[in-house]
Amino acid sequence: MKTKILTMADMTEAARLIQAGEVVGFQTETVYGLGADARSDAAVKKIYAAKGRQADNPLIVHVASVAQAERYTENIPEEAYQLMDAFWPGPLTLILPVKKGSLSTVVTAGQDTVGIRFPRTEAAIALIRQSDCPIAAPSANTSGKPSPTKAEHVKHDLDGKIAAIIDTGQTDVGVESTVIDVSNPSNGFTILRPGGVAKEAIEKIIGPVQVSKGVKDASEIPKAPGMKYTHYSPKEPVYIVTANRLGFEGAAAEFSGKRLGLLADDDKIAAYGEQFAYHFSLGAADDVEQATQNLFAGLRYFDELDDVDVILAQAYDSRGIGLAYMNRLDKSAGGKYL
Ligand code: TXA
Ligand code: MG
User: Are strands 190-193 and 178-181 parallel, antiparallel or unpaired?
Assistant: First the structure.
């Protein structure tokens, strides 16, 4: 299959492809998504095939209004409406009871809940509205690779495997949406994945929420590093460098004789860059939002290099968006800290 590269001007063509049961890459504010008609088993199966994704991992359904979300979900608690009101359109996915028969069971992996979100980019909203259907979309990367923040990342991973990519530029947030389970209020509300909407911002709206045990706070540095499964990883090992341990100088000394890559902010690169064979900037000093925006592009940059042995990456404080940054970096490093 030849993958077409489209722009906003080609939205009619993109919507026609979705209606024909094809898969289309499109920009959301978080990362690029890999979209298909969420009501069609055959269309949704093409997403899993293109990504190489496990069939038991459910997809997020994208809508372009609260009314559209209500067509596919039921028993929506008051707190969920408050979150929609505060953060939609935007990077927040709500796990809600699915309305039986309204969506393909391939999307929900047979579960009785569905993850639903209203993204805020012009491209995503136009695609959903013109296709006139809910759009199931995981991140548009090959499973295991860093999520795509540019159309060229999608092309790199999926060229020839999907019908089209709508290229509307780099994504704004840089990591995926926050996923919060609001499906059973009697159990409280639980963040399953930190992301573009900070826990603190959610708590301002609905009060205290839990964070799933699987989401480690970066302050709890593991004793046995490298024991975890990795995701978002370049082919070289990634180590997270924390200021209160070795620092970059000490960390670089640990690996003397190796070819090192540095993933850090401009100040760190100015200070330590000479000790490293390659470096990629996360942006201005101590700007965690910029670092989050640039993280996946940086991990992809190193993945493409053939002559780097080890990557040392900068830790940030895990408040606000920093929780999502550290969560993704921790997965990419498989929990290895220096
Ligand atoms: O920002 C995002 O959320 C991006 C853009 C494209 O919208 N999408 C995205 O999708 O990150 P994906 O498939 O890469 O990640 C979806 C996450 C997975 O961890 C999945 O297990 C979880 O959401 N999820 C989806 N449906 C769920 C459900 N019913 N219950 C629990 N977790 C669910
Ligand atoms: Mg993903």
Answer: antiparallel
Q: Which ligand 1 atom lies nearest to the CA of residue 111?
A: 29
The Cα-based distances of 294 to 148, 170, 179, 298, 337 in angstroms read 11, 10, 21, 6, 20
Q: Smallest Cα–Cα separation from 126: which of 1, 293, 6?
A: 6
* 49: amino acid identity, one letter: A
- Determine which residue's CA is closest to atom 12 belonging to ligand 1: 138
Tens digit of each residue's pLDDT, the chain (338 residues): 999 999 999 999 999 999 999 999 999 999 999 999 999 999 999 999 999 999 999 999 999 999 999 999 999 999 999 999 999 999 999 999 999 999 999 999 999 999 999 999 999 999 999 999 999 999 999 999 999 999 999 999 999 999 999 999 999 999 999 999 999 999 999 999 999 999 999 999 999 999 997 776 555 555 444 445 678 889 999 999 998 778 899 999 999 999 999 999 999 999 999 989 999 999 999 999 999 999 999 999 999 999 999 999 999 999 999 999 999 999 999 999 99
- 300 C-alpha vs ligand 2 centroid, how far in Å? 14
Q: Would you say 40 and 47 are in contact if contact means Cβ atoms under 8 Å apart?
A: no
Distance CA 302, CA 59 (A): 28
| Residue 190 beta carbon below 6 angstroms from any ligand 1 atom | no
- Which atom of ligand 1 is the closest one to the Cα of 93? 3
* CB of 266 closer than 8 Å to CB of 281: yes
Q: Where are the alpha helices (DSSP H) in the chain?
A: 11-19, 41-51, 66-72, 78-87, 122-131, 151-158, 199-206, 247-254, 266-272, 288-304, 322-333
Q: Which residues surround ligand 2, an ion (CB under 5 A)?
A: 139
One-letter amino acid at 4 equals K
Over 197-236, what HEC string results?
A: CCHHHHHHHHCCCEECCCCCCCCCCCCCCCCCCCCCCCCC
Residue 256: count of CB within 10 angstroms of its CB: 8
Residue with tokens 């290895």: 336
